[in-house]
Amino acid sequence: MSAIRIERLRWWHIRELLPIEDDLFGAERWSAAMFWNELASGHYYRIARDSSGIVGYAGLAVTGPDEAWIQNIAVRRDRQRAGVGRALLDDLLAEADRRGARHVLLEVAVDNDPARTLYGRYGFVEVGRRRGYYQPSNTDALVMSREGSGGA
């Protein structure tokens, strides 16, 4: 496997990441328009790329003077458990710190044990549950939070 590079997500990357989104999330996938909206809103989005193309992507929205939400982290199935998700999460958390976010939050499907384990390793703890959040599967989302350095 070739080295991973983390780069800024550009509008022309959206077409390449949609098959990953579809494979991982099926009926609950984001549309191209949703990614366009995230970019148009100025949110922080990154891709992970190697010689085979885009292998993952992630986004962060800073929502207040000291709060940020991880919008998504997705890694192509053939590259999972190879450090891609960690590299993307490291990048998002560093950006949250640069922007002064003292609280970083995310939502994760209650049945996504690998992601929950990863987030737990980074100090995220469960602070709430959104019943039936993911549709059409009606899967609950756990809300997880991590206290950051806030740029300190």
TrEMBL record:
InterPro entries tied to this protein: AcTrfase_RimI/Ard1 (IPR006464), Acyl_CoA_acyltransferase (IPR016181), Bact_Acetyltransf (IPR050832), GNAT_dom (IPR000182)
Reactions the enzyme catalyzes: N-terminal L-alanyl-[ribosomal protein bS18] + acetyl-CoA = N-terminal N(alpha)-acetyl-L-alanyl-[ribosomal protein bS18] + CoA + H(+)
An MF annotation (GO) of this entry: protein-N-terminal-alanine acetyltransferase activity
Limits of the N-acetyltransferase domain: 4-149
Keyword Cytoplasm: yes
GO cellular component, one term: cytoplasm
Top-level taxonomic group: Bacteria
CDD domains, per the entry: NAT_SF
EC number: 2.3.1.266
Summary of the function given for this chain in its UniProt record: Acetylates the N-terminal alanine of ribosomal protein bS18.
Protein name, entry field: [Ribosomal protein bS18]-alanine N-acetyltransferase
Source taxonomy: Bacteria, Bacillati, Actinomycetota, Actinomycetes, Micromonosporales
